[in-house]
Write a structure and sequence with these properties.
mainly alpha; Helix Hairpins; Monooxygenase; 2 domains; 7 helices; globular
Length: about 180
Amino acid sequence: MNYFQLFGIEASFDVDLQNLSSNYQTLQKTVHPDKFAHASAQEQRIAVQKSAQINDAYQTLKQPLLRAEYILIQRGVDMPNEQHSFGDTSFLMHQMELREMLEDVKSAGDVDAALLEVQRVLSSEYLQLTQLMRAQISENNSASNGAACDNLRKLKFYQKLNVEVDRLEDALFDD
């Protein structure tokens, strides 16, 4: 089952989330357990399975990084796992610098300003990388799909850093 076909939308990185949500609600109504209350056990089980598939598809397509990964997998791109080593040493060095920047927030004279600066830098770089990956996915050839895969892995690093920023912010400002 192709998730994009399931929702009747174009297979693209850019998705109309309102349309996706509307289609999701329509599909869920067709397999809602109440509709199968008087059906056989097998029909009820099938309805639950279809509902779960629709939920999985919706969760995948509504999240940009999951959507990008799904598109690339559908194209046959071999997605390395997160433990797979990363060949871009300059990116890895930059990640270390960003982690140091985040660590320095704790001892900054103006913690608010330091935290805002980290958030600004991460947001800006995440946006730039997302736009690059979007263009690569749109290009859709072997080289661009491979590059999009590499950038998706980089975006996952940023996503983890943003979680760490949120945790740090909670730790610093929860009294």
